Amino acid sequence: MKYNILAVSACFAFLCCCNDHPAHEHYNAEHVIDINNPPDISIDDFIIDMDTIRLETTDESLMKEADRVHIMDDRFYILTNDYTEILIFNLKGKFIAKIHDKGQGPDEYIRINSFMMDPVKKRIIIADSFSKRIFIYDRDGKQNRVINLDLSPEIIILQGERFINVYSGSKQRYTNPEMENYNIHFLDSQANFVSSAIKTEIPRRIDIYSPSMIDCLENGDILFQPLLGNVVYKIAGDSISAYYEFNNLSKYKLPTKDLKNDFEYAMVKGKSTKMPKEKEDEGYLLTWGNVHNLNDYLFFHFGWDKKRFLYYEKKTSRSLLIDPESVKGDKNLIKILFSYPKGIKGNRFYVSPSHFLINEVRAKITNGKIRTFLDNTGIDGNPVIISFSIKFPEDRQ
Q1: Residue 252, φ and ψ in degrees, nearest 5
Q2: What is the pTM of this model?
Q3: I need a labelling partner for 238 at 20 to 30 A (CA). Which of 11, 43, 221, 271 fits?
Q4: Which among 159, 162, 165 is positioned nearest to 180, based on CA atoms?
Q5: pLDDT at residue 17 in the model
């Protein structure tokens, strides 16, 4: 059985920009997102409607830190930072249940490599690349199915009755050249390989990837941005299209073919861990493929050592590139709220500061609500969650 995947039409043209940006590949994307220079902005003008959630601490629900958070319906699904458990809480922080099937048995995983939600059928999909298995649970954490694979899964998405494996890390992972040289692998309902799509833009790639580089939309469509890529693809059923593309109007440089060749050379020489910082020091805005879809916005996380966030307002096509270091206002609150969000849902961002960060900033934060909340947060309890929404300042065009 073969899926009729529509080819991604990409015409490569050199764009001559008046701001002396280097020419880059141009895709016929449906939407263009401008990247402007970071504005002069205050945290009070940008972040609104902050709320705090304290996760219930019991012997069964105790964890050190949250690694990733998915929100489905009225619940948090939280992967612990030791990658062994998924804890389920309601949105007020009340513990409901947990998934803890770590072990060597036929229905147990060795390590949770990734977990995604199936928003259509309300299920949890776990991938374990060590045991080469997929685990499917219902919304209450009850195991429904275990599938043994002939491949090492990375990020597994259930779309309809088929699976999609998303991979953007280092090469020499798969023996099948179709899987080795492409980012998207389509699997049938039994998780057997069928076909691939979106050829990798980096010949050898690098061993740095984002476990949150995709977003599953409520209708089952998927957004995917390849590592160091300047375009976001939409996978809708059997079609794949270039959906969003960056138009760089900023002082930074976006990844080019030459940059990707530099990363390939770094892989060969074993210097890939130094390369991201070196390129950011040269003025590159590195795209690690973190794309999130909100009701009214798109959110992108750039940077390895120097983090920057891009917000795109769908209705107006306006965009804001935020450099946390230049945002005005309470610097300690900025440290909390501009850490990378653990989860995003609707129009809300969810951050979970570490106990170390809480201890560092709690006595210095001027925001009364957040300070009181953190003052009452002990280091022996569960992590806390702070949620907020954003607004674009009216004078930003």
Answers
A1: -90, 170
A2: 0.88
A3: 11
A4: 165
A5: 34
